Amino acid sequence: MRPVALLGLLAFAVLAAPAPAQDSPGIIPAAPSDAPEKKPAVKHTAPAEKPAAIKPAAAAKKEEQKKASAAVEPPKSETVKSELAKSGPAKSEPTTDALAGVPRDERLTIQSALLWSGDFTGAANGEEPLLAAIKNYQKRSKAKITGTLTPAERTSLLAAAREHEQEFGWSVVADPATGARIGLPGKLTPLAREAARGTRWSSAHGEIQVETFRVRDAGLSALFEKEKKEPATRKVETSALRANDFSVAGMQGLKRFLVKAQMRDGETRGFTVLYDQAMEGIVAPVLGAMTNAYTPFPERSAPFAQPAKSVDYGTGLVISSQGHIVTDRKLTQGCQVIVATGLGDADRVAEDAENGLALLRVYGSRKLAPLPLSNAAPKAGEVTLVGIPDPKEQDGRKALTEIKARVTDGTAIELREPVPMAGFSGAAALDASGKFLGMAEMRNAVLASAGPAPPPLRLIPAPTIRAFLEARDVAPATQGGDVRASIVRIICVRK
User: Fold this and answer.
1) All domains of the chain, ordered by start, with CATH?
2) What is the pLDDT of residue 392?
3) Is 250 helix (H, G, I), strand (E, B) or coil?
C-alpha cells in the first residue's frame, strides 16, 4: 500500500474536482465542469507600448483607474486550498484519447483499475489525465512508457483491481432514498440504515460512516454554508463552491469528514463520509474511488441498495375480490406485522422465491377492485410504473406516483430518469393504453463489482403472476376498471 500522505493527496485532489457527469456503473475519474469557475481578479502587466503611440490624457487616466480597480477587486468565490488548485487552469486544446477504440464498458473498467492502483492522480504537465495515469502505471511497473496499454499490462492491471474490490467488498449501488448511484466498500460499511434525508452505511461501531442526502427547494450556496457550519464541531480545511456543485472537507470532532453535493433542476443530492483519524490509512485508498464513483443524477442506474428498516414501505396489487394481494417477496421477509393501508392487517399465505412473488390476504367484508390479469407476454417499449412512494417522499401522504420507464428485453426495466424508488417495490407496470403488463421487482446488489450493472428493475410478467395464483387455487380477475384502483401501500413492521 502506498504511503498515507500520497493517498491523502489523491483524495483531496479528487475532492476539489467537480462531480462526474459520465454515466458509469463503476469508478469514473471526475470530468471538468461545464460551467467556468469564478476566479479572483488578478493584476496583469500591460505590454510595452510603442513610443509613437501617444494617448490622450483622459484615456490614459481612465486606463489607470481601470488597472487600479482590477488590482484591488476582492475574490468572488472561495479559494480552494488543495494541490489541484495550484496546478492552474486546464488547457482547452484537444488531447489524445489514450483508450481510443476500446469498448465503453472495458474502458470504464480500466479507468477504475487505474484509480484503485493509485496511478490516476489528475493531469500532469498538461497531459490528458487518463494518458498520464497509464504512463504512471507503466513507469511504476518498469515497463516501456508509451501511454498505450499492452494486452499483458491490461490483464495485470485489471487483475490487481479485482483484488482491491474483493479486499474492500466494493459494490456500486443505487440509493433508493435519493436516486443517486454510489460506490461502497461493503466490508468497511456493512450496516445500512435509513437516514433522515437518505441512507446511512457504517461499520459496526461507527468508525466509518457514509450517508447520502437529498434536499429540494434549497439554494446551493445556502446549503454549502450550512454544511460548513453544522454540526458546530466541524472545522473546515478545504472547500469549493461552483455553479452547480460544492465540496467541503476537514475535521469534525476527532473524525475527518468529506461532503460532496451537486444540484440539478432545483434538487441537491450529495453524500458525507465520516471516519476516525486512526483509520485514515485504511480509508484513503477508497475515498477517491467513492468520490469518483458517486453519480447524483445517473442516466443508467445500478442494482438497488437494501438498507435494513424496522418499518418498510412498498406497493401491493389487489388481484381477487376475496382479499388477495400480490407484492414483492423481499418486502415481506422478516415482518412481524404486515398492513395493507386502508384494508387492515394482512397474512402472508404463499411465496414464489424463483419469481420473487409473495401472496398476501386481508379478511373481512369490503368492496375491492381486483386487478385484471392478461395472458399476453409483455413487449419491449415504453411503460409507466405506478406505485406509492415512501412517506418521506411525499410528506406522509399515500398518493399514487407515476414514473416513466422502458422495457428493453421483455423483463429488464430501465428508468427514464434517476428518481428515488423507496416504496416502489411491487409497483404496477402499465403500457401506453393503461393495460397491466406486470409487477416491477427492485433488484438488490449482492456481488462486489465495478463492471456494468444489470438494469435495476425486473418486470414480473402478468402471465407469470397468473400462473402463480392458479397454482394456489386463486382465481384472478380477467376484467376490471382502472388498474390504479387496485394499488395499495404495503407496510412491513420488523423487530
Assistant:
1) 169-297 (3.40.1000.10), 311-493 (2.40.10.120)
2) 81
3) strand
